[in-house]
Design goal:
alpha+beta; Tad_N; single chain; three-stranded antiparallel beta sheet
Length: 110
């Protein structure tokens, strides 16, 4: 009987670890997508202005995320992306990540 209880505890712990690991992977993927999107938008911010955000949509989508918000202030880009994850027992969740990119000496609004 104790063996069955031990197996149940081990399965519960394993499921918890898989859930946490899955959430962390998606969080890192969302942050990477936000970083790359912000860099892509900032690279085109001067010539295109707000139109650079359209390029950001494609970059975010290529990285498995959706562009939720994009703001261009001078040469600085501020983006928020969202990625979805389906976690065991918890269902579908959305993970958001924010990133800013631009010249180091430019002072943009927070």
């Amino acid at each position: 009987m104790w063996a069955v209880a031990l197996i149940g505890v081990l399965w519960t712990v394993a499921l918890g670890l898989v859930t946490v690991a899955g959430a962390r992977v998606v969080r890192h993927r969302a942050q990477a997508a936000a970083d790359l999107t912000a860099l892509a938008v900032a690279a085109r911010a001067i010539p295109l202005g707000e139109e650079a955000c359209r390029r950001g949509e494609a970059v975010a989508a290529a990285n498995g995320a959706g562009l939720e918000r994009c703001a261009v202030v001078g040469p600085t880009a501020d983006v928020i992306v969202a990625a979805e994850v389906r976690l065991p027992l918890l269902g579908l969740h959305t993970v958001n990540a924010r990133a800013r990119a631009g010249p180091a000496d430019h002072r943009a609004a927070p």
